[in-house]
Design a protein that fits this description.
Layout lengths: L2 H8 L3 H10 L4 H14 L6 E4 L1 H14 L1 H4 L9 E5 L27 H8 L3 E6 L33 H9 L4 E6 L5 H7 L2 E4 L19 E6 L2 H11 L17 H4 L8 E4 L12 H17 L2 E4 L6 H27 L10 H10 L4 H22 L4 E5 L18 H12 L2 H7 L2 E9 L5 E8 L2 H14 L17
Parallel strand pairs: 2-3, 7-8, 7-9
Antiparallel strand pairs: 1-3, 4-6, 5-6, 5-10, 9-11, 10-11
Helix pairs in contact: 1-3, 3-4, 7-8, 9-17, 11-17, 12-13, 12-14, 12-15
Length: about 500
């Protein structure tokens, strides 16, 4: 695969690449070799931290020889090269460090249900992407692997915790890569890297064979450049595994079909301020949200200013407790892996603060935090009134630099106070279990991405609105300086 051909393929989204394989114009192996060439060309980004090239080639050859690509039996994504986030997307036999020095030699013993679904859809897995330790940070600069560079600028974070996946997609290594979202970990990287980042509704997918993470706050999906790729990937992983504690209702039709139809006029509540204590929203971000509102209004939707109320302090306290408990689970997992108690210096300082607090968290503290999450969800939903959708910023300012969102602050609550002062509304998508999507609808005067976020109880309406916005405010040809594809004509 020559460099020119590899670069030209980067311009295609996942469905576009799969169409070439289905038509017989390129084989899955040729698509993979082009992605590997782009991976090698982008080593400076530090997005891919585990190469699984031979594993990917074996899978691609098997797909090519099976004839399923030409038959179309494997679906609209078959043959597309794909990267897995190194957290929440286990692949048996592959290294799974989860960004932690304590787990740097850990190898996954099982393949996650969601990865099995990706493989069943014909996605060709050939590597794993960088992530902060245990997904704790909305930036990707772990001590174990080092920082991932944002293709838009070496001075700004690609976000986190799915920052490696976001950087790989934004640069054109792959058209899509997996991610997970516990307080914004898909949507924040999407905003930082100029991508589509959908957090599905709670229980849309399964964490099997593991339990649900962060008491249901976390959910898995992907980073993409187009709305249709996000819809197709969600179709591939929709459903539950036997034994799941609960499941989201199955959609009436596929998400890919849904985006081909305009939705009924929606009642959309719009807010530009943060629900948590924070500096005023950057005027450029506020303007992007307001512009999105005007665009949606011009399409026929109803826009009304307002904001659902809830107890921000209670939510921050509850999120802190749940993360403390989650990090004790990391500590125990590392103990089992190492066969000894891990040392403090084997963890990130901010993770150690959470573990230290987690060691003294009581069962009542944990139960109260879960109860708070549910009670504040009810308050949030009541505050939405008759509105169908919430339109808000993703980040309250353009993408921040490094060394901000991963620092210990003395307490877990102080850590999240800093995070929420940057992210604003993102965590409420996780608290409520609603679906939420970040769209790259604007840029700053110096070309940095600005994300705008929509929230609703279900994904279908968000994807339909996103498709309308994608058509009205196209972003497909907006390329970062670190783009690996063919130069713009």
């Amino acid at each position: 695969m020559n460099a020119r051909h590899a670069a030209e393929l980067a311009d295609l989204d996942a469905i576009g690449q799969a169409a070439l394989a289905a038509a017989g114009d390129l084989s899955a192996l040729e698509l993979l070799d082009a992605a590997i060439a782009r991976t090698e060309a982008a080593r400076g980004l530090n997005a891919v931290i585990t190469d699984l090239f031979e594993r990917g080639r074996e899978q691609a050859v098997a797909l090519d020889e099976s004839g399923t690509l030409r038959s179309g039996a494997a679906g609209p994504l078959a043959g597309v090269p794909f990267l897995l986030k190194d957290l929440g997307a286990s692949l048996a036999g592959a290294r799974e460090a989860m960004g932690s020095r304590a787990l740097q030699n850990h190898v996954a013993s099982h393949t996650a249900w969601i990865v099995e679904r990706y493989l069943a859809a014909g996605l060709v897995v050939f590597g794993k992407t960088n992530t902060p330790e245990w997904g704790n940070h909305c930036t990707t600069e772990p001590a174990l692997f080092g920082r991932t560079t944002n293709p838009w600028s070496p001075d700004i974070t690609p976000g986190g915790s799915s920052g490696g996946s976001a950087a790989a997609v934004a640069a054109g290594i792959v058209p899509a890569a997996s991610g997970g979202d516990g307080t914004g970990s898909i949507r924040v990287p999407a905003a930082c890297c100029g991508l589509v980042g959908l957090k599905p509704r709670r229980a849309r997918t399964s964490f099997s064979p593991s339990g649900h993470l962060l008491e249901g706050l976390a959910v898995e999906h992907a980073l993409t450049r187009t709305v249709r790729d996000s819809a197709a990937l969600l179709d591939a992983v929709t459903g539950g595994a036997p034994g799941d504690p609960y499941n989201a209702p199955l959609p009436e039709t596929t998400f890919l079909d849904a985006i081909g139809r305009p939705p009924a006029p929606q009642r959309i509540m719009i807010a530009t301020h943060s629900p948590f204590p924070a500096p005023p929203t950057d005027p450029r971000v506020a303007a992007a949200v307001e512009s999105a509102g005007r665009t949606l209004e011009s399409i026929g939707h109803h826009i009304e200013p307002g904001a659902p109320g809830f107890d921000a302090g209670a939510v921050a306290d509850a999120i802190s407790v749940l993360h403390n408990v989650s990090n004790v689970q990391l500590y125990n997992f590392a103990t089992s892996h190492l066969g000894r108690d891990p040392r403090e210096d084997e963890f990130e300082p901010s993770s150690w603060v959470m573990m230290r607090e987690g060691f003294t968290t009581t069962g009542v503290d944990h139960a109260d935090a879960i109860d708070t999450i549910h009670s504040q969800t009810r308050q949030f939903v009541e505050g939405m009134g008759a509105h169908d959708v919430l339109l808000v910023p993703t980040l309250l300012a353009p993408p921040p630099g490094f060394g901000i969102l991963d620092q210990p602050r003395g307490t877990t609550r102080a850590f999240f106070d800093v995070e929420f002062a940057h992210t604003g509304w993102t965590t409420m998508g996780n608290v409520t279990g609603w679906a939420a999507i970040s769209l790259p609808l604007a840029v700053t005067e110096d070309g940095l991405p600005i994300g705008v976020q929509l929230m609703a109880p279900d994904e279908a309406i968000l994807l339909q609105l996103a498709a309308q916005l994608e058509q009205a405010v196209p972003w497909a040809q907006r390329r970062p300086p670190g783009w690996l594809g063919a130069p713009a004509s």
